[in-house]
Amino acid sequence: MVPEATVARLPLYHRALVAMSERGATTVSSEELALAAGVTSAKLRKDLSLLGSYGIRGVGYEVDYLLYQISRELGLTQDWPVAIVGVGNLGRALANYGGFSSRGFRIVGLLAADPEKVGDKIGSGAMVEVRPLYELELLVRDTGVLIGVIATPAHAAQDICDRLVAAGVRSIMNFAPTVVSVAPGVSLRSVDLGLELQVLAFHEQRKIGREKVRS
Amino acid sequence: MVPEATVARLPLYHRALVAMSERGATTVSSEELALAAGVTSAKLRKDLSLLGSYGIRGVGYEVDYLLYQISRELGLTQDWPVAIVGVGNLGRALANYGGFSSRGFRIVGLLAADPEKVGDKIGSGAMVEVRPLYELELLVRDTGVLIGVIATPAHAAQDICDRLVAAGVRSIMNFAPTVVSVAPGVSLRSVDLGLELQVLAFHEQRKIGREKVRS
DNA sequence: AGTTGTGAAGCTATTCACAGCG
DNA sequence: CGCTGTGAATAGCTTCACAACT
User: Cα separation of B25 and A164, whole Å?
Assistant: First the structure.
């Protein structure tokens, strides 16, 4: 069983390895990869050792081989049909994010409550047409959506989440700035862009405080 | 010294308390607030006890008083001039995010490399005009930007970060899907929307694996 | 009576430092 | 010789459970 803290870092290693592979690198040491991923080399080696023994002592790791192993571990070698609910700027940002399709995430549906937005075509590469929100259940059933992304205003998030779960989706990514709750057995991850900024403000405030003391 | 894990949760409590205050609640127990914030009550009480003794035994916490204390701790009672670099969908999503101004974050500048976007007016409430990227240093100096937000494509992120730091910004929020590095003394937080989805895919894959075994 | 605040215990994650191996 | 893989040590975080207090 891979610990949660390690799982959260695997995408960092994956991203760094993709960049290295594209640059044509064949092998990489734990020191180099750790630097590129923004972690310490001891942590990286410990993490990788939990997946298996994929390195060569005295040499390092073979870039493409390690990349494949991490991709497989993360499940990026398979196809993930994704539906995005909410087509505001955030929903559009997600739909246009190039990093999805290359990692097996396939946007099979965009849903908007606002009739004005229905019919718009959005995407990088394969364009997807925005459909009305009431087709949510239909879409999930027809396309076998495995991951539902909530990019709606906060007040709509719980209702959308409930509808996604009722329709059979068991993995929910929430970008709405509110707590949503799900039944046991459903995975949920939340990111609130505003909360992250507040953590930063906390640290900046500390710095300012220290400077005032010093002067 | 407040531990990092606690700092990361304070914005959750803040968000829950704002909602409660708006709803007119006057007091709240650790149990209720924990539920609203999505944490356990023991964790909540431990976190709050690290800030000070703001509760009343046998009663709970006074909503507005606790909200003020957390706001002060996070630095949300002061004014934070923010510059957003990059006016794609993500930059726009951030500029339109209503949760900023109410928490002391004031967007004083939007910068775009693309001349087509310069002059656009964006925002919720006070509109901000998009300025050309070469005015970055000027903007930071004139408006005293304390937090720089990077919402550019990955390849531009490090350069923008370096320019922000050189101009005097010491807190950077990075939304570009790449590692950026900063000098010691500069705070950096990164959020990669794509990485979060990968963690979700990992867990969903585990579920699918278990089901196959069972059948 | 009821809820906070908090030591102590238990658990998880990180770092160290070096044996083991190519 | 150099770098990985990993036990052991350390640090940090969470949970427990109850004394302290209103």
Answer: 31
